[in-house]
Amino acid sequence: MTLHRLRSERFRDSADEALSDAELQANLAKLRGNFLARRARARDSLPEFDALVDEAVGIKNHVLDHLDTYLVAFEEAVEASGGTVHWARDDAEARRVVLQICRDAGASTVTKGKTMVSEEIGLNDWLDEAGIEAVETDLGEYIVQLAGETPSHIIAPAIHKNRRQISALFNHHHKNLPDREADDLDGLLADARQMLRGRFLAADVGITGANFLIAETGQTVIVTNEGNGDLTQLLSGVHVVLAGIEKIVPTLEDASTLLRLLARSATGQDMTSYTTFSAGPRRHDDHDGPDSFHVVLVDNGRTGLLGGPNRDLLRCIRCGCCLNACPVYAKVGGHAYGSPYSGPVGAALTPSLAGLASTSHLPNASSLCGRCEEVCPMRIPLPGILRRLRNEEAERGASPPVMRTGLQLWSVIAARPWIYRVLTSLTTRLLAAMGRRRGHLPRLPLTRAWTRTRDLASPAGATFQSRWKAGERP
Amino acid sequence: MSEPRPRVALLVTCLVDLFRPSVGFAAVRLLEDAGCDVEVPAQSCCGQPAYNSGERHLAMKVARTMLDALEPYDYVVAPSGSCTGMVTRHYPALFEGTRDEERARALARRTFELTRFLVEIRGVTTTGSRFDGMVTWHDSCSCLREAGTREAPRTLLRTVEGTVLKEAGDREVCCGFGGTFAVKYPAISTAMAEDKAARLEETGADTVLSADLGCLLNIAGVLRRQGSPMKVRHVAEVLADDTAGPAIGEPDP
In this complex, do B221 and A457 lie within 8 Å of one another by their Cβ atoms? Predict the structure, then answer.
């Protein structure tokens, strides 16, 4: 199992590039607090929010305890309504399944609603190699596709771009549009709408993700604010739903409970503009709907989490709330993580799915401030999971040797208070003598990681404990 | 008849011990004024650097030393939300399933951050100190999310004579310290600290106060490097009327 285009190994370089990209910094700064403030308002105006969270966590935990049962029930319900369920153990199987469906439909173009699983398995590149054009229809996804990029945020894929950048992109790619609109916001929207309209009508297959899969009814559920998902799945003859196996909920009622949390946590809306339930292909007396309906259930590492200590991650409903709360994400943006999943949940999920070997920066690049856990509507203990991943790395002896030796030395000293006192007493006196006149220490090789960008305050002199031991009192 | 004076162990914290002993003495004075008998058992570090770096075994060794040292007291009080959180939140998790689990839980129940202890446990309403100027408060993440300290320092600061408290924006956002994170990812850490410093400076306050020396060293590090006039101090110094000495990162007069 792999995650497509995984580049987490170069996190440090990507982060540095992001930090020195003034335009990106300005774009990210605009995001700061915006979604979260709306989320806070939505939460405050719903007195039962916390009770809903408890209920939702309970639903997901129950599902994870009985995932096998519910998956099979879901499959039966989908087939009863005339659809087909495909099981994909990993990314490669998922790609093959989707390609086969496209080939069987004789497809030359497919439209796509928003699906993170598609990013995970690298579907677009794969279809492209097979000569099938995949067109993203979510506006943000469409923008990043034109730019040859990947989404930088789970729910706002192009959040790293500003209007000027989007306008330039459209000017380049929409040259052939007969009546090019102006470059203001409405104009850009009209532009994209005009481009996509033709795509919707021409598509042979429509691929969407799923926010929920309902075992009781065999329905798949998507939420959008643009209605693009509906056009994707209705206007082509074949609807393919790509979903991770953890998206299952037992009943329609459970889906409603989770829906009440999803939009509030994501964008601060009570509900998204569109919430679409799909149940099988079009029946003879239906007004519309696809001729065939496929659900591809993707594992790609998820069952590996199921029995392990990071299982709580499978409760994630991809609301993106933790990204909005994360001060690291706010500085480096989503692309730095080098994974389809960025921010706190990405830092926890990416190594859990793809292994720590090439992703170990992600759990380490966090101040463990805890804000993600505080806002998570599924109460996923993200800092705890990041810490556990660090522990896993340390136990494999894979953490950076300098840091490890330093911590070992510190711990040996700290476990013996008298050695600690003698050593620190000497050291602080020495450092105080070096820095007290200026108030901060000179830039020593050992302190470089701190002092290159910040002053390091000088110790004041002897340690508190040595002064206390010598009888000094306030 | 007056209540017996509780025996309180000061958890000095290694940063205070090493960088700013005056905070330790200020804490002792505040606790004594609040009717406590204060002792300073021989101690070192709470083990958080190792714990957060995933070195559980090392962390446990260090934490067990602290457990032994701090156990005999009615209360343990730290001038830090971070070290308090380590004891109250993470010691029980660290020792879970070991013979020390119950000891760790018991210690966690008796351990408090200094300002919260003064206000909520000792019922202190004012420390009667004086500090002239406009101050702003930096909520450390650990105070907010682990130690339960949000209102207590504000309650006390509002009674300090000569002090005006001006709140900053983005108060719930981390300053970028994060212990070893600050040196493992210095560029990100500094960028976060610069954002924090900007929010603090926007208040127009001349001093920033907090309950955590780690954050304060980080914030002071950026402010001093930028040549900002804003001063940085630990809240205990202001509450204990011990502000004659240089602020954090300032030279000796």
Answer: yes
Residue pLDDT, tens place only, A377-396 = 999 999 999 999 999 999 98
Q: Is residue B81 part of a domain?
A: yes
B94 shares its domain with B161: no
What are the structural domains, with CATH classification, of chain A?
8-303 (3.40.50.10420), 403-469 (no CATH)
- The residue of chain A with its CA nearest to that of B171 is A33
- Residue A207's pLDDT is what? 98
Checking if the pLDDT of B2 tops 80, the result is: no
B185/A439 CB distance under 8 A:
no
Q: Does B249 touch chain A (CB under 8 A)?
A: yes
Long-range contacts, stretch B86-89, CB < 8 angstroms, 24+ apart: B86/B46, B86/B47, B86/B48, B86/B51, B87/B11, B87/B46, B87/B111, B88/B146, B88/B147, B89/B146
Domain termination site, one of B120, B136, B162: B120
Which pLDDT value is given to residue A182?
65
User: Mean pLDDT over residues B225-252, rounded?
Assistant: 96
How much is the pTM? Answer: 0.96
Give me the residues of A, 327-386, that contact B with CB < 8 A: 327-328, 330-332, 364-371, 373-374, 384
**Segments forming the whole domain that contains residue B37:** 7-120
The stretches in chain A having pLDDT less than 50 are none
Q: Residue A183 has what pLDDT?
A: 73
- How many folded domains does chain B comprise? 2
Question: Is residue B244 within 8 angstroms of chain A, CB to CB?
Answer: no
Chain B partners within 8 Å of A369 (Cβ): 141, 145, 173-174, 178
Count of positions (residues) in chain B? 253
Do both B129 and B235 map to the same domain? yes
Q: What is the mean pLDDT of chain B?
A: 97
